[in-house]
Amino acid sequence: MIYTVSRLMGACAIAALSTAAAAETITIATVNNGDMIRMQGYTDDFTAKTGHDVEWVTLEENVLRQRVTTDISTKGGSFDITTIGMYEAPIWGANGWLVPLDGLSEDYDVDDILPAMRSGLSHDGTLYAAPFYGESSMVMYRTDLMEKAGLEMPDAPTWDFIREAAAAMTDRDNEINGVCLRGKAGWGEGGAFITVTANSFGARWFDEDWNAQFDQPEWANALNFFVELMSESGPPGYATNGFNENLSLFQQGKCGMWIDATVAASFVTNPDDSTVADKVGFALAPDTGLGKRANWLWAWALAIPGGTQKEEAAKQFIEWATSKEYIELVAAKEGWANVPPGARTSLYENPNYQSVPFAKMTLDSINAADPSNPTVKPVPYVGIQFVAIPEFAGIATEVSQEFSAVYAGQQTVEEALAKAQALTNDAMEAAGYR
Amino acid sequence: MARAVTNNRKALNTAIAWSIGLIIFFPILWTILTSFKTEAQAISNPPVFLFFDWTLENYSVVQERSNYMRFLWNSVFIAGGSTVLGLIIAVPAAWSMAFVPSRRTKDILLWMLSTKMLPAVGVLYPIYLLFIKLGLLDTRIGLTIVLMLINLPIIVWMLYTYFREIPGEILEAARMDGASLKNEILYVLTPMAVPGIASTLLLNFILAWNEAFWTLNLTAAKAAPLTAFIASYSSPEGLFYAKLSAASTMAIAPILIMGWFSQKQLVRGLTFGAVK
Fold this sequence. Notes:
Chain B: It comes from Roseobacter insulae. Chain B: It is found in: Cell membrane. Chain B: InterPro entries: BP-dep_ABC_trans_perm, MetI-like. Chain B: This is Carbohydrate ABC transporter permease. The structure holds two protein chains of two kinds. Chain A is built from 19 helices and ten strands. Chain A has helices at residues 2-22, 34-41, 43-50, 61-73, 88-94, 115-120, 143-148, 159-169, 190-200, 217-233, 243-251, 264-268, 311-321, 324-334, 345-349, 351-354, 359-367, 392-407, 413-430; strands at 25-31, 53-59, 81-85, 122-123, 126-127, 130-142, 177-180, 255-261, 280-284, 297-303. Chain A is globular. Chain A folds into two domains: 2-135 and 298-354, D-Maltodextrin-Binding Protein, domain 2 (3-Layer(aba) Sandwich); 137-296 and 371-430, D-Maltodextrin-Binding Protein, domain 2, CATH 3.40.190.10. Helices cover 45% and strands 14% of the residues of chain A. Chain A is of the alpha/beta class. By secondary structure, chain B is an all-alpha fold. Helix content of chain B is 71%, strand content 0%. Chains A and B meet through strand 1, helix 2, strand 2, helix 4 and helix 11 of A and helix 6 of B.
């Protein structure tokens, strides 16, 4: 008996020791946004299930990009998991900087990830990052102002309708701008918006031989339309407005329409922050009848850098954070409107989530985006609001600065397009594409 | 002979000085005020100045989300350590340049200063790789050494300027009395240069406290100081201005308080030797 008990105690001790040895502390680099911060609050649930502790490094997204790029390209191993976007995932995957996310458990149900997200986060069919949440862009509009203007927003409006509605809703005396759009320089700010707008006008960044296309009439049409629309119905100083500035204007009731990230829907319908929470409607991003809408596709996703020593624990965390169970955990604690959207098919099949006002339009917007076929004419690249090549961020930042100078009245559309054409071709030539 | 200044002129000078002071201080004041607003009040247009419902909610959210004391301790360690280490190296260096100059002293001084003109990002990768090899990534010691090296030219230059104001004859007299080099620096030179050393110390502490390039790029979770704490509340997608302001206020509060109490010393040191 004594022998049995001592053997049992020995086994317990070994089990305890092996659990202690297996328990790791993983470091996760992430961006500062509502969904990511919410996830940090639920870390205890992960620790309780796996025994692993988590340390968070939260940074502004551009700082994070620079910080993680330095670490990952030198295999510094500072982070066991990093938050990356749809732009980085295929490029870094191709460079061998990320651990492939194969061998995920059956319970995780990798096939449940929305196809657009899965393809955008893969390279050569291998998934390199799991989407935590995904987004497209859509029209958010004031139902009361639309009604006052005597118009009805279609589910899939055209740019001409947007222009007409914006003019009708603009009330300068009461500081109401018909439409608020991004004009701020930066490839992820105004650069992203004008790129998807141009896509809907039939423009493209490059032809099949990587020649810049800013000298084509489609770009001139798109940019002229944008400038005229914003001059007629946009807020003053829109050249410096990005997501946050427009969110602030919309929440204060100073925009008739706002075309931006679908994730903003939960902000503008939140009565704690928005003065117009109960007067917001949604529609697909506009088009010009050419077959492409002005909407993008983006995901914030979790990936494992190649330099980590804690790959198994990191994989466990990714499975937990991007699982169906995590969504249910958030829904149970904070309601369905607050779960991370745009990542899983099952979420949009859930009747509880279908009752969220912006759920359907978010899914429709995501489904309307095709990163492999983003433009009317054929292109040699993948990506809708970006071109998935390493050089793009630098080139697009410069191009968007030229466009912002147009919005600020510092140069003409023709001048900006000519500069964009020259600088893009120069950069592509230097990079060996041409 | 001192120039006569009329009362009107004095009042005008005072008003101008106060105006300039307020303009310089306004961004800090605005940050502090915003930290007591709700996110909706923080972005309201027209902006609210003083008459709003003051709230401590942002501070409680920041406190709950981040381990402020860890960031603070890292800042104190890194800023304090790099300043003290810098002074230990710079005092003898500045002494030799001020009192035993060679033909190359001026060139050396200029060369030291020229390293400050190099964009930091230009040496990011070499230093990052060195840190990986030496196991110094995300360590307070590593960051202390880097910030000391970065600020060393300024420390040497400042001390050199102060030491040049001290008559060499006093040191000679000490030597005549049999003082060793160590005693000469420790017991003769240093006490006479205390205002200058104090202001060098304070200025470099502030520089190290505010340094945001290396402290963000060479740290992760363990050694991150208050600059990383602030950066964690900045976001291009989501309104966090009030929380960002609360985090900024908490980050600058220690250095503001320190500056307030030591302003006399700081001003005295910075004007050391300006009036003969």
